[in-house]
Write a structure and sequence with these properties.
The complex is a heterodimer. Chain A has twelve helices and nine strands. Chain A is of the alpha+beta class. The longest helix of chain A is centred in the N-terminal third of the chain and has 38 residues. The longest helix of chain B is centred in the last third of the chain and has 19 residues. In chain B, β43 and β44 form a beta hairpin. The chains are: A alpha+beta, B alpha+beta. The interface between A and B is large, with 84 and 92 residues.
Chain lengths: 341, 788
Amino acid sequence: MKNKLNEMIIQAEKSIMSCKTYNDVLDVKAKYLGKKSDFNDLMQELKNLPNEEKPLFGKLINEAKQEISKLIDEKREELEKSKINDLLKAQAIDISLPGRDFTLGHKHVLTKTVEEIEDIFVGLGYEIKEGPEIESDLYNFEMLNLPKDHPAREMQDSFYITEEILMRTHTSPVQVRSLLANAERKPMKIICPGVVYRKDDDDQTHSHQFMQVEALVVDELTTLADLKGTLLLIAKKLFGENREIRLRPSYFPFTEPSVEVDVSCFKCNGKGCSMCKSTGWIEILGAGMVNNNVLQAAGYDPMKYQGFALGMGIERIAMLKYGIEDIRLLYTNDLRFNSQF
Amino acid sequence: MKISLNWLNTYFKNKLDGFDLVKKFNLMSQEVSSFEKLLDINGLVIGHVKSMEKHENADKLNVCQVDVGNEILQIICGAPNVDVNQKVIVAKVGAVLPGDFKIKKAKIRGVESFGMICSLQELGIQEFDSDEKGIYVLESDASCGENPLQYLGLDDFVLELDLTANRSDLLSYRGVAYDVACMLDLDIEFRKVKVDREPKENPVSIYTQTKDSSVYYGQVLEGVKVKDSPYWLKSRLIASGIRPINNVVDITNYVMLEYGQPLHAFDYEKIKSDRIIVREAITGEKITTLDGEERTLLDGDIVITDGEKPIALAGVMGGLDTEIDNSSTTILLESAIFNPVKVRKTANRLNLKSESSSRFEKGIDYQETLNALNYACSLLVELADAKVIGNPSFYNNINSKKKTIKLSLDKINSITGYAFTVEVVEDIFRRLRFSYKYRNDQYIITVPSRRPMDSYQDIIEEIVRINGYDKIPVSLPITPTQGGLNHKQSVIRQIRNYFVGKGLSETKTYSLVSLELATLFDQEESETIRILNPLTKEREYLRHSILPSLMGVLSYNKARKIDDVLLFEIANTYFKNGEKLKLAALISGKINNSTWQKMNCEIDFYYIKGLLETLFKELGITEYSFELSKETLPQLHPGISALVKVNDQVCGFLGKIHPETEIKIGLKDIFVMEIDLSNILNRNQTNVLGYKEISKYPSVNRDLAIWLDKNISAKEVVSVIKEVGNKTLNSVEIFDVYYDEEKSNLKSIALSLEFSSFDRTLETKEVDNQINKITDALNNKLNAKLRG
């Protein structure tokens, strides 16, 4: 009987192994474990055995049944898995084909640059102030230490609307307005971004309309060293952590001392290249300590209050950052250009 | 200002290192715009023409044997003025002349030539000699084999400074010398001027009738011989960017460069009186200036007169009638100061900017007015055989009281953030040659007339630049302030981000447009603002709307075969009553358009409307509506456009561009919107924050399709439904509109209604009741029938 059982297990294993489909497995299962299976015959034989042998053979039969049942389960699992695998194989796609196209718009590169600068200054505790583009001569020039006959006015040939009203030539009048509005003389740290106008013919490097960001700090303590530190920080944020700056004497009516600010060339790292005209330095902005006449015009006591101002052309910064060589590209709005930013 | 290094060197014991000077100027003074050799030519020697014979095969060529010191060169020369015994400039084989003209060994019609005899023009010098006809012939004392540029004083370097408006002191060599001496800490040696005067009375008398001339010196000189200036003088003028003319004019220019004081020379014999009167011009008065132009004067101009009529435009240009010519022998030399503003205005109006006028405009050091005159006199004696007749006549109303400025060390340090010491500051004062006293912890600095200064800030500027900006430490402002974007700025960024996310690209267009464009898409039709002095007609008016510019951008891109153009811009528009920040968008073509896996969407009215509605949702704006109105713009399709209202106020419009316009520009299906943002940005922000409660129970959805008159708007249908629906009616959404050709006056609208309750799951019966009520109402009020 024991031999018979072993023979059955071997037979069952063989037929299980040869199963190709799930149905084959069910047939095998019916044959060996169903109501009319060989085991039923053995169970009948068991009844005829002497009582003392029954438990042993009963156990052997059960074990054989379990063994076969296990083999059937395993086979079934294997077949299920391969069925799913076949399905997956059939469903596979070419993932190298492109994804669907979601049109994404683009911010203008000048906006991106302004926002970048705004974010740097906001992080330093500056507020953003705005003002009108149509300005009075008083705010645009006179209160900025540029009286009517000042020769430096010629540096900024302007679009006039009346003799006293013009398109602002810089965002400095916003500084004047902000100083005037600060009746409590609270420490002030502001930046003034915006559109400005100068009477220049449009060419590769000039635009009659362009953008500026100016910063102004006025309190009782701010020094030239604070200006230098702020400039260094901005240069690093805009052009990379390894940048250095250099200040050179300059002149603006609204600041004194006034400086031009150069940043070490970010293309050649100061070795000298076409971008920096072999000097290793690139001029990026103008700055200085607020001229006492400006403070005084806004009602501040220059013996008590002091501070700095700086101003940069957004176009210049954007052109330097992205290597744009013609300022007119910024106002042509060719979508092949605009969509690169 | 162009500076000859040779000339500058004359003020110092040792020659200056030009490249070091450039560095110093850049970091401590003024930007150097260029520094280069006046003439960058090697291989030039002085040659002596030993013999000359006609070229056997060419009439106009001569074969010269030229001694160049260490050898005799055979050189063929075509110049008509070449002759035996001349000292000439020879460019040897290997020399490269301007224009990349390489001198090579050559065979000209069978005869060999080893170099070229040059004119100065060939070396790049124009008009060194007033009557140069061919090659340049040197004086006989030139020695063979030496460098002709050195002999002529043309072996020079030129340093050009970009002067800022506060450094007019650098418009003179003496001013530059002071600055160089300060930067390099050197001693300056200025030449002592001595004038030999004839013991006679200066015949001219000088008067003024205007406050616009504070000082005027006039000196008569006799026996003047007008001729060419010597080499050294010509060369220095050329290096300084001034064309030599004759000795008298050259001397006035030379002295102007040296002192910064412009001079003018009159032919004294041509002046009709011996009185010079400086006065304001009378409007309508005329003078013919040196350039031959007749100028009509205004009463702001200052003129030099002979007592009757103008003989010069003060500080701007002399008169033709009293011009120095080759036969002039008696001259009147003027050294004076005129009101800078008046000179500038006159020079600007008449377009007569010159080296003189630009110096007057920027202010003259009154302490040099007489010195300059005297130096010119001494040069005229030396170089033009002039006799100086007595002492100069003059008036001098200068208030020469010296200005002082007070400044403490504490102030210097509290402004700069650097720890200057007394020693450092005083050493800088010494180098600047500023005289000062120290009293009550303060320096009292006497402002020199050569460096006008207004306040202690000017002095601090000098101290910092001489000490070096590199020494200033770096720190950040320490006063605490709170930064950030305000509500308006945040919303503008939000709007930009929204549109970018929706596939629109931002543009930047010009505010100034043509008259035609300035008023298009203008809801208010108010007056435009015009620029008084526009550059072109295209940039003459301030725009009322951004859309004309966006239409331009559309055309530009369509012309470049870009089919899908989706644009927006946020910019100011300009009205008599102020500026308005507007948002404009223009869309044309398809969105999400790619050839692969098409999921593109044709743009129509509902697309741009949805774009705006979703923006309103994003911004939390709920009180908006769209109205078909006769008042929308003529540029828009009258049946496919609407006014946009927020809080019941019109704030913009949207719609399709009028077909007529579309045909005109050859494009179609353009949809635009423009919204005045002022209303939106200034909305009350103190809305109590909160949220809308959501029901725990499931909602019930019912669809409803009706037929109704084509002209009844969807808005009316929705409002009827909302009117009769009870509070369980959550929302009404339209999901389809359908037209049937056979029912031409009808349309079908399909709606989806959602019902729910906060306290129970709704029963079918309840919802049925609601639907019945709603369909009844639609039938009664709008004659709408349920679609079968």
